[in-house]
Amino acid sequence: RKKTTIASLLASRSSGTPITVVTAYDYPTALTLSSSSCPIDMTLVGDSLAQTALGLPSTTSLTLDEMIHHAKAVARGTTTPFLVVDMPFGSFHISEEQAARNACRLVQEAGIDAVKLEGGREIAPIVRKLTSIGIPVMAHVGLLPQRHVAMSGYRVQGKDVAGAERIWGDALALQEAGAFSMVIEAVPTPLAKYMTENLDIPTIGIGAGPYTNGQVLVWDDLLTTTPSDHKPKFVRRFADVRSLREKAIAAYSTAVKDRSFPHEIDESYKMDKSEWEKFM
Ligand code: KIV
Ligand code: NA
């Protein structure tokens, strides 16, 4: 299996082969997504890192330095997937210069392939700037978690004609600015389908229905790693890792407390009797 490239993503789009994307925040996860037995096209170090791995209340408190720390670990374990990293809140909005400086840090220090930027037409000049200096940009439209306060929560976007027109206009502006691909988050299926059919770049959906060119899910959502009663409608639980982990830790605890672990011979080191006698 070859390394995913922008050209191979475009080829998947043309041939109608769905593109698979999963988030990762550390080295072992990156290894899994790179493994030949479950090959994934693209690994995303999403700023969902804030909640999933760092226990922060939202993505807006994640810093660029924290993102670089995790992106480095993911990069060390990534082979074939195209490696994309979210630019955190506040790390690209201030100016084109700030965005370029911080995107260069991500490329240089973490060794990632591309950056993802949340936002609409207002960030098109920033997308153009990064693209012009050779840093591929993935756009992200629809629900923008970095703006959850301004949007009054995490809600489906583009349900009315004004919202749909705004998202479509944003998508066109971002494609025009040079984005190589686009995440579409939490929009009605017909809008995501229309966007996919009328854009020239691959669309990657999350909560955007089955007609986008690819799908992305958060690692912790698809594996169920974390206690959570709330399951967003668009999440499917492909495994219950949380209960598997809890069972294993409970078994370990019991074994230590009842002294059945470690086994005296199979799980312990021995010493020659003569050496032991000299020691004594
Ligand atoms: O941060 C993230 O995990 C994301 C994906 C859900 C697209 O942006
Ligand atoms: Na994100």
TrEMBL record:
<dbReference type="GO" id="GO:0015940">
    <property type="term" value="P:pantothenate biosynthetic process"/>
</dbReference>
<dbReference type="InterPro" id="IPR003700">
    <property type="entry name" value="Pantoate_hydroxy_MeTrfase"/>
</dbReference>
<keyword id="KW-0566">Pantothenate biosynthesis</keyword>
<comment type="similarity">
    <text>Belongs to the PanB family.</text>
</comment>
<dbReference type="GO" id="GO:0005739">
    <property type="term" value="C:mitochondrion"/>
</dbReference>
<dbReference type="InterPro" id="IPR040442">
    <property type="entry name" value="Pyrv_kinase-like_dom_sf"/>
</dbReference>
<dbReference type="GO" id="GO:0003864">
    <property type="term" value="F:3-methyl-2-oxobutanoate hydroxymethyltransferase activity"/>
</dbReference>
<dbReference type="GO" id="GO:0008168">
    <property type="term" value="F:methyltransferase activity"/>
</dbReference>
<dbReference type="GO" id="GO:0032259">
    <property type="term" value="P:methylation"/>
</dbReference>
<dbReference type="Pfam" id="PF02548">
    <property type="entry name" value="Pantoate_transf"/>
</dbReference>
<dbReference type="InterPro" id="IPR015813">
    <property type="entry name" value="Pyrv/PenolPyrv_kinase-like_dom"/>
</dbReference>
<comment type="pathway">
    <text>Cofactor biosynthesis; (R)-pantothenate biosynthesis; (R)-pantoate from 3-methyl-2-oxobutanoate: step 1/2.</text>
</comment>
<dbReference type="GO" id="GO:0000287">
    <property type="term" value="F:magnesium ion binding"/>
</dbReference>
<protein>
    <recommendedName>
        <fullName>3-methyl-2-oxobutanoate hydroxymethyltransferase</fullName>
        <ecNumber>2.1.2.11</ecNumber>
    </recommendedName>
</protein>
<keyword id="KW-0808">Transferase</keyword>
<comment type="function">
    <text>Catalyzes the reversible reaction in which hydroxymethyl group from 5,10-methylenetetrahydrofolate is transferred onto alpha-ketoisovalerate to form ketopantoate.</text>
</comment>
<keyword id="KW-0489">Methyltransferase</keyword>
